From TrEMBL:
Sequence ranges of Basic and acidic residues compositional bias: 92-110
Organism: Synaphobranchus kaupii
Residue ranges of the region described as Disordered: 92-121
Lineage: Eukaryota, Metazoa, Chordata, Craniata, Vertebrata
The protein's enzyme class: oxidoreductase
Family in the record: Belongs to the sterol desaturase family. SCS7 subfamily.
SMART domains: Cyt-b5
Cofactor(s) it depends on: Zn(2+); Fe cation
Positions that bind heme: H42, H68
Enzyme nomenclature, EC number: 1.-.-.-
Listed InterPro entries: Cyt_B5-like_heme/steroid-bd (IPR001199), Cyt_B5-like_heme/steroid_sf (IPR036400), Fatty_acid_hydroxylase (IPR006694), Scs7 (IPR014430)
Protein name according to UniProt: Fatty acid 2-hydroxylase
Entries under PROSITE patterns matching the protein: CYTOCHROME_B5_2 (PS50255)
Gene Ontology terms, MF aspect: fatty acid 2-hydroxylase activity; iron ion binding
């Protein structure tokens, strides 16, 4: 919406009509938002929003049950479609209050809405009509904050359609390309081990035969090794902090991972395109062959590749799936959504938060509803201490 256009006005009856999964509107004060597209993506579940359709959700945005992040407040602004018509609207409590005071006082009366910054696509530092790849490097020290303010829109990296196509992939291309290779190599490893010629040398003279039945174990070990690799690459490569004056490193960061933080629900760039992944997979294979004993290295590599496929699919699911509350997947989704929206310097594990523990990057647990309502004893100690 351009600043010169006056906002569309809706009557309360009109707003109330949009209360289904197919069309869901909510209010923040008198501002109207069409959140239909977001329902399925909401971490708290679609029911929490749907049950409040047509109503003012400002109170819920500040919790309980959850105090929403600054980014969640920004996010909602993308769905702004107009205002509730004060003349035609019924006398809601909010409106009655607002009519008593002057225009300036009105703004102060709704701190939960106005105190949060709003995203304005027109002033969002980049020109969205032009490809982003050559613009982001110029953001300099503003890049870090910009890239961690997510938006709900597809991104265009390059002018060339070919280049654009190379950087995109649908989720099912990952298992389609890599799983036949995993299956073939698994069969190859198993039959090679069955020949009982693969040995691990414990000393220069003493060696043990690697039996074919140890293959599942080696595969699982390879998958476990992947989880460590996943953590390291996400933390140390994808989340490297490019120097503000280095145009090329900022661009590289954006292409590798920054773009995913800027547009976390761009489905075409959620998994790594197999074409671009191939040389990396080849490099990892070489690394395994020089690091681990012959015969065993291939088994571990297959496990690692399998772990990678599982990781990419889980990551896709965490963005688009709606796992059941209380399930492992739900906990993973909550963890990953918080990595995107709130704690970008923590929560680097995707398929497991295991490696966040030894590296001290675990996202702190949110206090439960009861804990926020009834202050824990430590706060009372703190309170008494402060009084003295
Ligand atoms: C339509 C506007 C809304 C938007 C854009 C929104 C956005 C978000 C986002 C981005 C998160 C992830 C954490 C964060 O960034 O704070 C989140 C979590 C959550 N939201 Fe909302 N939300 C909305 C409305 C609501 C409403 C109306 C409720 C409840 C009455 C609600 C309850 C929750 C809960 C309980 C969580 C945390 C779930 C967990 O950690 O397991 N949200 N929301
Ligand atoms: Zn990340
Ligand atoms: Zn993600």
């Amino acid at each position: 919406m351009t600043p010169t256009m006056s906002p569309r006005l809706f009557s309360q009856k009109e707003v109330a009509q949009h209360c289904t999964k197919d069309s869901c509107w909510i209010l923040l004060g008198t501002r109207v938002y069409d959140v239909t597209k977001f329902l399925r993506l909401h971490l708290g579940g679609e029911a929490l929003i749907l049950s409040r359709s047509g109503k003012d959700v400002s109170r819920f945005m500040d919790g309980p049950p959850h105090r929403h992040s600054e980014n969640a407040w920004r996010w909602i602004e993308q769905y702004y479609i107009g205002d509730m018509d004060r003349n035609r609207a019924a006398e809601t409590e909010t409106l009655r209050k607002r009519r008593k005071t002057s225009e300036n006082a009105e703004e102060k009366e709704q701190p939960s809405v106005t105190s949060h910054s709003r995203v304005d696509p027109e002033t969002d530092l980049v020109d969205w009509q032009k490809p982003l790849a050559w613009q982001v490097g110029h953001l300099g020290e503003k890049y870090d904050a910009w890239v961690h303010q997510p938006v709900d829109r597809p991104l265009r990296f390059f002018q060339s359609s070919l280049m654009e196509a190379i950087t995109k992939s649908t989720w099912y291309m990952v298992p389609l390309v890599w799983m036949p290779l995993v299956l073939y190599l698994s069969w190859y490893c198993y039959t090679s081990l069955a020949e009982e010629k693969t040995r691990i040398f414990l000393t220069s003279e003493y060696s043990v035969v690697v039996h074919q039945y140890s293959f599942p174990l080696l595969l699982l070990l390879g998958m476990f090794m992947w989880t460590f690799f996943e953590y390291c690459i996400h933390r140390f490569v994808f989340h490297m902090r490019p120097p503000a004056n280095n145009y090329y490193l900022i661009t590289l960061h954006f292409l590798l991972h920054g773009q995913h933080h800027k547009s976390p629900f761009d489905g075409s760039r959620l998994v790594f395109p197999p074409g671009l992944a191939s040389p990396i997979v080849g490099g990892v294979y070489l690394f395994f062959t020089v690091t681990f004993p012959e015969g065993v290295s291939l088994c571990l590599f297959v496990g690692g590749l399998c772990g990678y496929v599982v990781y990419d699919l889980i990551h896709y699911y965490l963005h688009y799936g709606s796992p059941q509350k209380g399930s492992y997947m739900y906990r993973l989704k909550a963890y990953h959504v918080k990595h995107h929206f709130v704690h970008q310097r923590a929560g680097f594990g995707i398929t497991t938060s295991l490696w966040d523990h030894p590296f001290n990057t675990v996202i702190p647990e949110e206090p439960s509803e009861q804990e926020t309502q009834h202050s824990p004893p430590s706060s009372w100690f703190h309170f008494l201490f402060c009084l003295q």
